[in-house]
């Protein structure tokens, strides 16, 4: 173990030896220099393949690169600009609902519930050109929306943890698909069959949306204009790009991207937004400063903000950055070495025999945990106040220790959105969603803490609960009309 805890040798389930890594140099090799050796963990790939199909999260190597090459242009700044009206209309519906809830005075509101519904609708409309939820209080939403929300909790119940670790990775390699399905049907697990049924609903919905989108595109511009998003949604752009490329994705891969987009964009964004609202409720001065910035920029924009106006919300941006630094929605991930590899360290560590080691030989098949949390919170890099939430740190130049560490993150010297060939492809999309949501909600409402004690659980994705109710995800915040 290193003195600063950036390299730790530990033991996983059933005695598996693991390296726990937050050392910047080691992470640079894992995520960038030697990324072809340090592949996604087999269980991660298996889970995503079985749950969502052949999307970005379930593929590696040349196939992953091919998918990513086609999808990268879809997330360009030019396309993000076209998303603004969709984001504004969607969050505007949430604002109307919350205004109705608070019409008689301050009201305790579960912000995690509303951020989850809103994030799903945002990716539904802008990603697929499809509405899952009107965001009205009494609207249960599309059945697929509930399935997306419940699939991770369902996959973490009872026998599913064992099946995901030791059986399903092998099942996922069998083919064709009807054989895999037959095996799953024969396994006597109620938990597994519950997950299977949710996947069926998600897949059927994806096929329905895809068929509608293809029909509209083949019918011409007028049919496209009648669709949600006017044909500027991610799926429409992806289908068009796929028709033009010499090496197109097959239909199952496109369907896999749909499910993957919804899953990847919903819980992470709702977790991040919920955490920001929670922190702003605790820090009214910061909240007031953002609100004033929003109103100043909005007034200068004539009451209708565009992409560049959201980019001008510099103090809001510091709050988002600092929250994503200290509280990343995903706190760790795993990699597995596909061959023997040397892992170097930025600072020497002490071996079990007391000798200093500047590198170590990692045998093929070894697993490694990338600690996003520890990398983002390093006192050596960020200073003695690294564990404090201080948005103003981003208003000054970053410490030289950060710049010289060469942290391999794609965003702000952080690992929140990872780095390398498997970095989050939609990180700019996520940031824009958050800015539009914060601008709309903070302009209209004041947030204050609930008297209930809130705890944050670390899982696949960080989520909030109330003390005494650990199994129920919720974030109560007192909402009132802002002056």
UniProtKB/TrEMBL annotation:
The keyword Heme applies. This is Cytochrome P450. Heme binds at residue 424. Keywords: Heme, Iron, Membrane, Metal-binding, Monooxygenase, Oxidoreductase, Transmembrane, Transmembrane helix. Belongs to the cytochrome P450 family. Pathway: Secondary metabolite biosynthesis; terpenoid biosynthesis. GO terms for molecular function: heme binding; iron ion binding; monooxygenase activity; oxidoreductase activity, acting on paired donors, with incorporation or reduction of molecular oxygen. Its main location: membrane. The lineage of its organism: Eukaryota, Fungi, Dikarya, Basidiomycota, Agaricomycotina. It comes from Schizophyllum commune (strain H4-8 / FGSC 9210). GO terms for cellular component: membrane. It is found in: Membrane. Its cofactor is heme.
């Amino acid at each position: 173990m290193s003195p600063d805890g950036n390299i730790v040798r530990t033991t996983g389930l059933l005695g598996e030896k693991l390296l726990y890594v937050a050392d910047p140099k080691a992470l640079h090799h894992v995520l960038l220099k030697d990324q072809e050796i340090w592949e996604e963990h087999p269980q991660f790939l298996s889970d995503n393949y079985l749950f969502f199909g052949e999307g970005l999260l379930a593929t590696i190597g040349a196939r992953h690169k091919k998918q990513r090459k086609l999808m990268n242009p879809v997330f360009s700044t030019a396309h993000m600009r076209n998303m603004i009206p969709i984001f504004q209309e969607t969050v505007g519906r949430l604002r109307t609902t919350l205004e109705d809830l608070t019409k008689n005075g301050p009201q305790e509101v579960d912000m995690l519930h509303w951020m989850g519904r809103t994030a799903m609708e945002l990716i539904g409309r802008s990603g697929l050109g499809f509405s899952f939820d009107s965001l009205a209080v009494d609207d249960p939403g599309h059945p697929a929306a509930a399935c997306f929300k419940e699939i991770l909790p369902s996959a973490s119940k009872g026998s599913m943890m064992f099946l995901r670790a030791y059986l399903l990775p092998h099942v996922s390699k069998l083919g064709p698909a009807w054989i895999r399905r037959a095996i799953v049907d024969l396994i006597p697990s109620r938990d597994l069959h519950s997950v299977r049924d949710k996947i069926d609903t998600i897949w059927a919905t994806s096929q329905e949306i895809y068929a509608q989108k293809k029909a509209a595109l083949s019918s011409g511009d007028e049919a496209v204009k009648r669709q949600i998003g006017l044909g500027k949604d991610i799926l429409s752009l992806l289908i068009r790009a796929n028709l033009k490329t010499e090496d197109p994705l097959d239909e199952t891969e496109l369907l896999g991207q749909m499910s993957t987009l919804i899953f990847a964009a919903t819980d992470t964004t709702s977790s991040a937004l919920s955490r920001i609202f929670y922190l702003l409720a605790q820090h009214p001065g910061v909240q007031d400063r953002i609100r004033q910035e929003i109103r100043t920029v909005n007034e200068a924009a004539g009451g209708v903000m565009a992409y560049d106006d959201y980019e001008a919300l510099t103090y809001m941006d510091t709050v988002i950055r600092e929250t994503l630094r200290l509280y990343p929605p995903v706190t760790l991930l795993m990699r597995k070495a596909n061959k023997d590899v040397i892992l170097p360290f930025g600072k020497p560590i002490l071996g079990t025999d007391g000798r200093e080691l500047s590198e170590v030989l990692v045998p093929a098949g070894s697993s490694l945990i990338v600690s996003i949390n520890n990398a983002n919170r390093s006192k050596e890099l960020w200073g003695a106040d690294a564990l404090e939430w201080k948005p103003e740190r981003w208003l000054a130049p970053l410490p030289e220790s950060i710049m010289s560490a060469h942290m391999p993150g794609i965003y702000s010297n952080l690992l929140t959105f990872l780095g390398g060939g498997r970095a989050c492809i939609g990180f700019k999309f996520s940031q824009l969603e958050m800015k539009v949501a914060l601008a709309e909600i903070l302009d209209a409402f004041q947030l204050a803490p609930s008297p209930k004690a809130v705890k944050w659980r670390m899982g696949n994705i960080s989520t909030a609960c109330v003390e005494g109710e650990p199994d129920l995800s919720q974030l109560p915040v007192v909402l009132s009309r802002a002056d």
